[in-house]
Amino acid sequence: MQITSQTDRCRLPSIYSIFHPIEEYWNSCRPDRRDEVLTDFINPVDVMLAHSILDKLIGKQSVVDLSAFTNEGVGSILSLRHPNVSDVVVLSEESNSGKQVRRSLEEFASSHCKGRSHLNFSTKQELSPWNTPKGPVVVLVNAKGIAAAHLTELIECWVTCSHDTILLLFDIGVTGKCPIIEALVTQCGISSPFQLHLTRELSDAFVSSRLAVVASKSNSEIERALLRIRQQYAGNNRMVDLLNASNLAQIRDKNLDTDLLRRFPNWSATHKVVETDAAHSVARRLIRIRERIAPDHSLRYRAMQLTLRANCYWRTHGFVRMIHAAAKRCLGIKR
Known about the structure:
By secondary structure, the chain is α/β, with parallel strands linked by helices. The chain has twelve helices and seven strands. The chain has a seven-stranded mixed beta sheet, sandwiched between helices.
């Protein structure tokens, strides 16, 4: 029987494996932008999430990149490299920078994306939901360079035309300060036919994400895709929670010294939790030392309790009164 080695298995996508071709495109095909930081145009976490969404969707997808001019063609490179994308339609601009983006995309597609997706360019007048390839469509939009009213028109135009269409909005702002999120929440309300998802709410690993997903409420496929992504990263911190629960259970089940707990009431075994790991470690060491020197129900343990009581009485009433009380106790005098 032939055993598959670790190197022969299909590796899961990572930020490096997904973002590395985009860095190659930036360094080779955009020499005029080498001095600028690539992450200023697009977030690497959003690139990985967009790749994961395309990966979790069923069947071949067609991508319409409306953000090629503002994102410098980064979304188109992501789509061209994805195995589940059959066609990529890019909104072209007639300006000099738009023509430069088109030349860079054509150069990179001819050298690095042969036999993958088909790259097409369309003007603003030609591009519409009715002129796109048949099948599910994913539309890439950059929220930074778009007005809230125009975004509402895009959602109404693309999502209403086809219930399989999904909008990926890059570079959204902070909730409560971004007009794009305010427009999205207004348009994707409870009674609205649209659904809105913020990827930073999927998991703690995506706190830095600035990606939003808009689709029709009848589109259950995007909900399944986001659920699979959430489940993929949901168990990252469960090992720490399990270790913490195990330590607390051992503290509760342990028969801790009553006198020690009386002197340090913050270390309760049943109602309170040890505040720091250092204090927990010190307490367990003290208990182990006490159990070795004076085991429970032994003469040493009773002598230790008597010594602690005498020490407490001496600190409270003084040495002379302690001697008098001990003498009265030995002679049987009550007063």
